[in-house]
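Worked problem 6 (solution included).
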Amino acid sequence: MSQFESRPIGRTQLKVTVFGQGGAPLGGHRAPSPWPQAEAVMDFAWESGIRYFDTAPFYGYGLSEHYFGNALRKHKREDYVLSTKIGRLLRPRAAPQDPNDLWKEPLPFEPVFDYGYDATMRSFEDSIQRLGLNRIDILLMHDLGVSEHHDDHAKHMKAAMEGGYKALSELRAAGKIGAIGMGVNEWQVCMEAMEYGDFDVFLLAGRYTLLEQEALTKFLPECQKRGTTIIIGGPFNSGILAVGAKPGVHYDYRPAPKEILDKVAKIEQVCADHKVALPAAALQFPLTHPSVCSVIPGSRSTDELKRNLDLFRTPIPTSLWSDLKSAGLMRQDAPTPQE
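Solution. The predicted structure is:
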């Protein structure tokens, strides 16, 4: 087993490995993995030295939390850090008629958005039950933001800051959780949240990557100032940084537009000039920022996890980063490794 560096979560006592395992691919509601496959991935993640695991009620409508709890209960609780989320309560729906379909679709629940105080407390207790564990280390508000809620954003944000944040703060003060934050797809909502309260960590998906670094303008400097740390989800920008500029590839959960395909093709060429695979650079780049504590690509098979780990450990010459900056493909103020 190779050891990963660990970095702190904000100003808390928690530390996470710089490479984590995300729970969306394993228990995801679009195409859940069967339990034997999920167990194999979780066991391989542990054997590989991963000690940070992130899940959510939304992933498989409870299935991912069941998977994570089943796999992690065999280990000492103090030996890993686990995060899950609030913001969606799960309500019963019709179950599959064919028992053989049990692992072909999510659990028989449907999610309902609710960021209020009572819902947050209920969601926390429900997650404890689904996980079958006695503690959750990090609790995150899930999927706030305009991209998710559109015209209802202000309503949900108000409920989250007035109700959900109060509940999270009470749980943190009581020692029932170690850190609080948000798991979102846009940095702007994190900036908005920081005006309301004291957050330890933000799980930011797809918004600080090899492809886009707009978060460097305001958000990441504010995090550095406050001592707030960032977990990077979606380091491949929904797939395009994993496979390159191919027809039909996805960016931001939809087919990539031409300007994105063109930019990725140029980044890919610079990587090729240095004999570095594009996804290797994509996995390693975010961790060069001092506020970033972990990157969690998520893997749905042991082969995929092994491939991601190999990419994560690929040596990258510092000249690759400088050449990307010289070509205008990376912001000049983006931190990069120095020789």
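Discussion: The first helix runs from residue 24 to 27.
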